Amino acid sequence: MKSFLGRIKPVMRYALFLTFFLSVFSLHAENFNAQLEEDLLQFRVLTPSLTETGSPADQSRYLGYTPDQAFAELGAPLEIYPERGKDSTADTVVFYYGNHLYLYWYGNRVWQIRADRRYEESLFQLFMNAEKQQVLDTLGVPFYSDTDSVIYRLPDRGYPVKMRLFFNGSRLSDLYIYRGDF
User: Fold this and answer.
1) pLDDT for 139-176, tens place per residue?
2) pLDDT exceeds 80 at position 34
3) Cα separation, 112 vs 153, whole angstroms
4) Based on the domain organization, do 132 and 171 belong to the same domain?
5) Cα separation, 163 vs 178, whole angstroms
6) Are 16 and 62 part of one and the same domain?
């Protein structure tokens, strides 16, 4: 006596197997998609309302500036100095401005911006020396977090943009906005 599958023609066996496989796969795919959506929420990009794109409070607008754009908007820097990277290919030139803003240059373009603890202007609806909890409450869940810093993703500009905030104790003390592909 033949088994149930043995009595079914080979083409029908294949169709039955394919139907079973696809039904199981689609059930798992739905669960996988739900989990993927939940995981991606953790890596959200800061919303345009927080980045205030194009406004004076959006320091990320300086990324990609050329020297003439920086001079036109910020004037001449108070200091210009080289900064040694991990190796000679990571060396950069830094423009330091009196408001405690730093522009880091590579290939005639700004690739990183820094605001130190003395910076007094608004930073994404925050000010330096803000409590870490206030930062988290304002900006939401970071892309990455450790004991003394958090990283957020900013809106893409044809390249990834990230913002890293450093804390001294529980107070915001340094902010870096940089191209994530450098």
Assistant:
1) 999 999 999 999 999 988 889 999 999 999 999 999 99
2) no
3) 14
4) yes
5) 6
6) no
Read off the DSSP letter of residue 126.
B
d(CA 132, CA 170): 5
3-state secondary structure of 17: helix
One-character DSSP codes across 82-104: EE--SSGGG-EEEEE-TTSEEEE
Q: Based on the fold, state whether residues 130 and 53 are members of the same structural domain.
A: yes
Residues 92, 10 share a domain: no
For residue 57, the enclosing domain spans 48-179
The H or E element that residue 171 is part of is strand 171-179
- The answer to whether residues 91 and 149 belong to one domain is yes
Same domain for 11 and 61, yes or no, is no
∠ CA 160-165-167, rounded to 5°: 165
Nearest to 64 by CA among 96, 114, 111: 111
User: What are the φ and ψ backbone dihedral angles of 103, each rounded to 5 degrees?
Assistant: -115, 125
Overall domain count for the chain: 2
Asked if 100 and 150 sit in the same domain, the reply is: yes
Same domain, 84 and 163: yes
- Nearest to 117, CA basis, from 136, 101, 140, 138: 101
Strand partners, 82: 93
pLDDT class of 91 with cuts at 50, 70, 90 = confident
